[in-house]
Specification:
By secondary structure, the protein is α/β, with parallel strands linked by helices. The protein contains 6 helices and 8 strands, in the order H-H-H-E-E-E-E-H-E-H-E-E-H-E. The relative contact order is 0.16.
């Protein structure tokens, strides 16, 4: 087994520090553009936004212009985005996963919460649309910060990931083909390739802990 060198560890730490600076710079530029009254200040905040995009471009190999447009879509005070995930287990403790059309990998159904959603309606809609299963929420078992959880690839925004333990109600329809390639139930010891930006094996195993004991406290990290 190849052991990471100290230099590679330092490079990884440095990249993460740069990413965190870029996220904060992007948030400051968005807040400044929201509240600045002077047009010169607005120009300066726009320049700060472009600098944040340049930093992200170095880290991700994505074009800076694309990132600048992505960062410019948000307005108002900068806050974390909200991602919801619905985790379902069957009687054999197999987990329900859907294969993402975007990367061909697997994850629990989920996605961005929409305006006017409640957390419950958001996750149940995602489960229904991406897996075809009607479900009910058992509990919110985790609120995780994407960066702390080590998801990849890095994003230019902060994200709170809300994980819900859900239960299938028995009604099943075809999943929407727009985002879903396939749907299946998997034992945790035989998982397909997981989509690293959406879920980790550790998170699924923690979900199983909550499935076995719903009285466990919510994970906050």
């Amino acid at each position: 087994m190849e052991i990471p060198s100290a230099s590679s560890d330092r490079a990884t730490d440095a990249a993460e520090r740069v990413r965190r600076v870029a996220v904060e710079l992007a948030a400051l530029s968005q807040d400044g553009a929201t509240f600045a009254q002077d047009r010169y200040d607005q120009v300066r905040y726009a320049q700060a936004n472009r600098l944040a995009a340049e930093l992200f471009a170095v880290l991700t190999d994505r074009p800076a212009d694309d990132l600048h447009l992505e960062l410019g879509r948000d307005s108002g005070y900068a806050t974390p985005k909200v991602d919801v995930r619905g985790v379902l287990f069957d009687d054999d403790e197999r987990v329900l996963l859907m294969q993402e059309r975007s990367d061909g990998m697997w994850c629990p159904p989920g996605g961005w919460a929409d305006p006017l959603d409640t957390p419950r309606t958001a996750v149940l809609r995602e489960v229904r649309e991406e897996s075809g299963y009607e479900a009910e929420v058992v509990k919110l078992f985790a609120c995780w910060e994407r960066d702390v959880q080590g998801h990849t690839p890095p994003l230019p925004v902060a994200v709170f990931k809300l994980f819900f333990l859900c239960r299938a109600t028995g009604d099943v329809r075809p999943a929407q083909e727009l985002e879903t390639l396939d749907v299946g139930w998997f034992p945790l010891d035989a998982l397909p390739p997981l989509s690293p930006g959406r879920v980790t094996e550790r998170q699924l195993r923690r979900a199983l802990d909550h499935h076995r004991d719903p009285a466990l406290p919510v994970d906050l990290d």
